[in-house]
Amino acid sequence: MKLSFNQTLRQSSLENDLQLCEKHGYDAIELRLSFIKDYLQNHSIDELATYFQRHHIKPLALNSLEFVTFCNEKDYSQIKADLAFLCEVGNKIGCDTIVVVPSFNIGDYTMEEIKKESVRVLNDLADYAEQANMRLAFEFVGHPDCSVNTFDQCEDIINEVNRESVGMVLDIFHFHSLGSNIEDLRNFDPNKIFVIHIDDADDFPRGYLKENIHRLFPGDGAINLDLILSTLKEIGYHGAVSVELFREEYYTWDPEKFIKVSREKTAEVVGKHFTVATQA
């Protein structure tokens, strides 16, 4: 299994993350929209494409179009502009996946209304993305205030959309935090899992966990990672896992130490169930 790094370190940069991930043996990287825009202040997309052509590390996904549902016209216009930008970047650097995140704190909408809006927006965004040979990975967020917050709810939406270009982000923290059902994962089509975010969490009750406070390195917390990873192997998942860690404590770390430790801990946990390349 390939190991990826998700750019979460606000004290770092795209240039720095690329060099450190290459140095410490990652196979892939998730590029964040804000980091890409900062990079392009002094570089070009062609330079980024050349970097990937000349190095082992490759782009896994572009992260992300956020809060895409129940938008006002101005906000949705910006989402469509960011989609066009990410499609252009993806085509040039050889990355075909864009992460898409539903909205929070939407007010009084029923589950059926949320489903209808999510399907409408994903179809609209996919109409454009498909023209650029890009696909969309919809990410449920396991927090009570998120409009799509469990695996089965996300699965229902993706099934209703029913497009090859639309799949899921399985974030293990979010899967755990509101108690998504492992049987739902066991019965899911692994080809519809476009991205996996791996992490761990403090041992708090469902609904209490907050991702910028309670995420931990894989293996350091209360999530049953062995059960989830063994289930992924059982259903035939063959993609990458991308370590994603938002935690205030980690923002004080030296980026190289953080990137190195992230890979070591992820490889140890994943290596119990999948073959992981030896670190260079």
Sheet/helix structural class: alpha/beta
Question: How many domains, in number, for the residues?
Answer: 1
Briefly, what CATH class?
Answer: Alpha Beta
- Kindly report how far apart the N and C termini lie: 15 Å
Determine the number of helices (DSSP H or I, runs of at least 4 residues): 11
Low-confidence stretches: none
The major beta sheet can be summarized as: 8 strands, parallel, barrel
Encode the helix/strand succession as letters.
EHEHHEHEHEHEHHEEHEHEH
**What best-fitting shape do the alpha-carbon axes yield?**
globular
CATH homologous superfamily heading: Divalent-metal-dependent TIM barrel enzymes
Radius of gyration: 18 Å
pLDDT average, as an integer? 97
Number of strands: 10
Beta-strand content estimate: 15-25%
Strand line-up in the sheet with most strands: 1-2-3-4-5-6-7-10
Percent range for helical residues? 40-55%
Oligomer: single chain
Task: Write the CATH architecture name.
Answer: Alpha-Beta Barrel
Protein name: Sugar phosphate isomerase/epimerase
InterPro entries: IolE/XylAMocC-like, Xyl_isomerase-like_sf, Xyl_isomerase-like_TIM-brl
Keywords: Isomerase
Organism: Metabacillus rhizolycopersici
